[in-house]
Amino acid sequence: MKRREVAIFMEYVIIKHMKTEIVTVDINNIDEKLMERAGVLIASGQLVAFPTETVYGLGGDALDPEASARIYSAKGRPSDNPLIVHIADFSDLERIAQEVPIQARKLAEAFWPGPLTMIVRKNDRVPYATTGGMDTVAIRMPNHPVALELIRKSGCMIAAPSANTSGRPSPTRASHVAEDLDGKIPMILDGGEVGIGIESTIVDLTEEVPMVLRPGYITIEMLSEVLGEEVKLDPGIIASDDTKKPKAPGMKYKHYAPKADMIIVEGEEDAVVSYINEAAERKRSEKVAVAVIAAEETRERYCADIVLSMGRRSREDEIAQHLYGILRQCDELNVGAIFSESFSTPRIGNAIMNRLLKAAGHQVIQV
């Protein structure tokens, strides 16, 4: 065998027999020695899953092409789907960008650390293996003590997509990470359940008009107010069908999906409840277990095998936080079909519906 083939074979053997260590981290009293050990793994080219304020991330050295390749391999992620680079200091952005737009400085001052990812033009320090072959790089500074400490202890900028098998619901707990990646990575840092529950907003600053490529907790209105200029939303990311293609490479893939077929039902409340109850009854007659995803206000109106509440519509943050856990719960309950209400809430409804539409494969029924 050639040297390269031997290296690939040895990597396969190591991954196949890897034991994943799950370590609890007290976010109020972080163990420095533990974080140093996790940092050494990152610095040596290995992977560590860790909590952020949005979802759990799967981290590797962002400037090491082989570490990025390990991330893609562990997740089963398409290699043209760029990784987000996580940093702990604004100066790291200056180190890897061709230039730092004034917009980036304004947004960082307002929202970093926090759930905002900015896309800028990269310089030669960032390998194409990390950016999915693109000349731009996505960067964010997470607002979580474990994430920031890991970045600093590793001495690296950390590339980190969500720590799940590609296509599955993103992980909001360490147990979700273990479900997908146990035996594939050396360490999971368990910092408890995350706060926000959906991924960061992504804004592209390389065009004449800033454009949101993935909606999140930071809204377009918030971005526009800070920048004092218009910010556009990529129409492909919230289209109710799949005919409008999103600009961000990662958003063209099926994401967040439970195993069962899922349909979103939109319309007036009475019509939605009536349709879902009738559909659930038909599925039951076919011996198919059905789950209904509903708001707390309407959950008692459904007659299905399982009714799961996303929370009250007046509490958007609660809905976002519960979303991925409920989709994973559907898998645990082994249901055969899922019907979900629409959740077009006033502030972060775009973000919530973007995830639901992707999870349902854009299957939407208007009633």
What does this structure look like?
- The protein has 367 residues and is α/β, with parallel strands linked by helices.
- The protein is 35% helix and 18% strand.
- It has twelve helices and 16 strands.
- It has an eleven-stranded mixed β-sheet, with helices on both faces. It has a five-stranded parallel β-sheet with strand order 14-13-15-12-16, sandwiched between helices.
- The radius of gyration is 21 Å and the shape is globular.
- It starts with a helix and ends with a strand.
> Distance N terminus to C terminus?
61 Å
How big a fraction of the residues is strand? 15-25%
What is the residue-averaged pLDDT?
92
- Outline: globular
The DSSP helix count reads: 12
Unreliable stretches covering 5 or more consecutive residues: 1-10
- Overall strand count: 16
Keyword list:
367 residues; 12 helices; globular; alpha/beta
Quick structural summary:
The chain has 367 residues and is an alpha/beta fold. It has helices at 3-16, 32-43, 65-75, 90-96, 102-111, 128-131, 145-154, 174-181, 220-227, 269-285, 316-332, 349-359, and strands at 21-24, 48-51, 56-61, 84-86, 116-121, 136-140, 158-159, 187-190, 201-204, 211-214, 232-233, 261-266, 290-294, 306-309, 337-341, 364-366. The strands form two sheets. Strands 1-8-2-3-7-4-6-5-9-10-11 form an eleven-stranded mixed sheet, sandwiched between helices. It has a five-stranded parallel sheet with strand order 14-13-15-12-16, sandwiched between helices.
